[in-house]
Amino acid sequence: MSSATLARTASAPDLHGLVAQFDSVEAIREASTRVRDAGYTKIDAYTPFPVEGLDLDLGMKPTRLGWVVLIMGITGGLGGFFMQWYANTTHYPLVSGGKPLNSWPNWIVIMYECTILFAGLTAAIVMLVRNGLPRPYHPIFNTPGFANAMRDRFFLCIEARDPKFDLDSTRAFLEGLSPLVISEVEK
Amino acid sequence: MAVAAGKRKAPFKETNRVIRPGETYGGIDDAVLTPVLAPLTKTPVWWWIGFTISAAVLLVYLVSVVKLITTGIGIFGNNIPVAWGMPIINFVWWIGIGHAGTLISAALLLFRQPWRTTVNRFAEAMTIFAVVCAGLYPILHLGRPWVFYWLVPYPNTFGLWPQFRSPLDWDFFAIGTYFTISAVFWFIGLIPDLATLRDRAKTKAQQLLYGLLALGWNGSAKAWQRYQRAYLLLAAVSFPLVLSVHSTIAMDFAAAQLPGWNNTIMPPYFVAGAVFAGFAMVLILAVPLRKAFGLEHLVTLRHLDNASKLMLATGMIVVYGYFIEIFTAWYSGVEFERYMIWNRMFGDHAVFFWALIFCNFVAIQPLWFRKVRQSPWALFFIAIIVSVGMWLERFVIFVVSLTKDFLISSWADYVSTVWDWSLFIGSLGLFSTLFFLFIRLLPSIATAETKETAYHDHHHGSDAFEHARLEYFHAEETA
Fold first, then answer.
1. How far apart are CA B334 and CA B354, in angstroms?
2. What was the ipTM of the complex prediction?
């Protein structure tokens, strides 16, 4: 093992990863597929708009957000029912319009609104939290030219914590994908 | 005109497509975001004029609110028997306007309509501001607005609960949920654009503002995956929500025994009316906005055409509702119902009914013609007429029904007061002030989504219908 490699290994904790820049959807999808096929796992792509199929190209699993939202929606609906049931039958029994105490048809609208409120807020909040937001700082922002990531450039990052990551060979591999620029990005 | 939008190159040729062919990602950003990030001194003159007028009208609102709170709701013209006068007309009018925004952002997303992308942002803003104007009405009308939180079911020392069996309490839940979900939907949609603004911001203040609001969005593939799923789910819950909101409002009336209110057609008919009024407001806002910011290549004639088709379709459903009301009154055989319709058409307030028929039925008929649907200013004026018509509709349903109910001894007329009008006109000021601030501080078009549309347009042609149409006409010409 040469001393140069040792020196790099020592500085590795400061390295976030290698980032390649592309200028089209086709290029980033092609590159993502090849990076995944080469066996890298700690990879991510950064694009100005959602690119259909890119998550699959990168070997990502589908999100389970839908299940969380479904469960919370049902919870909201049941919660809405039990709130009204408890209020009108147990806590403060009140006969109104000659209806039975448990006059559930009257409660459907509020149950429905509670379902939607819980489901909608869950979708938004869980999405943000699972994405680690709000988080003003992220190492990827150190990438040169990343100001265009939300404009018209597409970035592919192989992170240093990837077991297959090796500065020289990974860089050589990325160069084979013919990106516009490759940059070493620090944490 | 479009000072902040930069110099426009060639005179722009209107297009029938969803987006002008050949748009670049960066070009979309520049067209939409440059006016937002322009320094204060570069703010166009039309913006200052509009904002000043709006703010002046907003003052009228504030004065009216102060008068209302210090004096009480006796300053309104409502009394017995017309206990629901202008406040509820204006409340329903405003909330109806909001519905088109949610429909554009949610329903058209679920139906995969590519034309929604460039109009959804400002339509959603319109929704939120309209719901703000609407929501303030019932609160102000409570008489003691500072205890409005009694409507919320919370553990309290009175040991009391709201009346969960009342449609008025359903309203509170419906509108509260509607506002919350619309605002969240809007903000989630804004995040990628806020990140773009953050990266382009020139001054410290802009960097701080957009940097904070963008929450650190970086557009990673995993983040986009969750984002898109969350956005789709929000759309999926918003679509039925919007239908439920106006249905609930309709039940405020339909659940009463009053002739003219007690009608099972009310919920769907109110929803159609709301969407009708909402698309009218979308056109009222879109026509000047695209001109002022030079966004004709993004908000194209196709958008105006589609919005006016929807306006025509929902308008005709509303007209069907008018017809069914008349038919049901006759078919029911109930003398009070029959008298109510007769009173509407030929009674003291007949002029409002016929004006309403003109505004909501006659005035929209030109929309059957493509030429009208594609002339922006014609649409603008039709949309204003429709907005007036929808206000008249609520007046006719609420007030005219209440003036003459079952007992002749309880009949009385309704006269609105100057405060009724100042609060209403003031609420227009509130709406337009918020809207002017919005178009200056936030992107009025969703750039990330528009880039996606541009991508599909380059690569697959997002416009399957347009291709089919062109092919058809081409074949016809050659034959």
1. 24
2. 0.87
Preferred mutation among B117, B163, B164, B178 to probe A, highest tally of A CBs within 10 A = B164
Radius of gyration of chain B (CA): 24
With left for phi above 0 and alpha for psi between -120 and 50, is residue B11 left, alpha or beta?
A: beta
Beta-ladder partners of A186: A15
* Per-residue pLDDT tens digits for A70-94: 999 999 999 999 999 999 889 888 8
Chain A hits for B238, Cβ within 8 Å = 116, 120
Mark the ranges of chain A whose per-residue pLDDT is less than 50.
Answer: 1-11
For residues B6, B48, B290, B20, the Cα torsion angle rounded to the nearest 10 degrees is 10
Instruction: Name the strand (E) or helix (H) holding B216.
Output: none
Report the 10 Å Cβ neighbour count for B377: 10
Q: Model-level pTM?
A: 0.88
Nearest chain B CA: its distance from A37 CA (Å): 17
Mutate to test the interface with A, among B28, B29, B225 (most CBs of A within 10 A): B225
The Cα–Cα gap between B148 and B154 comes to 12
φ, ψ of residue B58 to 5 degrees: the values are: -60, -35
Q: What mean pLDDT, rounded, does chain A reach?
A: 84
Candidates B442, B69, B219, B82; CA nearest to A153 is B219
User: Would you call B220 and A44 a contact, using CB atoms and an 8 Å cutoff?
Assistant: yes
Q: Cis before residue B81, ω within 30 degrees of 0?
A: yes
**Nearest by CB: B218 against A60, A141, A152:** A141
CB contact under 8 A, A113 and B176: yes
Cross-chain residue pair A109–B230, CB shorter than 8 Å: no
Task: Dig out the tokens for B187 from the structure.
Answer: 């903000």
Closest by CA to A126, choosing from A78, A71, A74, A69, is A69
Q: Closest Cα to residue A120, out of B135, B177, B120, B107?
A: B177
pLDDT in tens, B297-316: 888 888 888 889 999 999 99
Of B164, B241, B452, nearest to A50 by CB-CB distance is B452
Buried b (16+ CB within 10 A) or exposed e, B132-165: bbbbbbbebbeeeeeeeeebebeeeeeeebbebb
Q: Which of A65, A113, A132 sits opposite B174 (nearest CB)?
A: A113
Q: Which residues of A touch B452 (CB under 8 A)?
A: 49-50
Q: What is the DSSP pairing of strand A154-159 with strand A181-186? A: unpaired
Give the other-Cβ count within 10 Å of B441's Cβ: 13
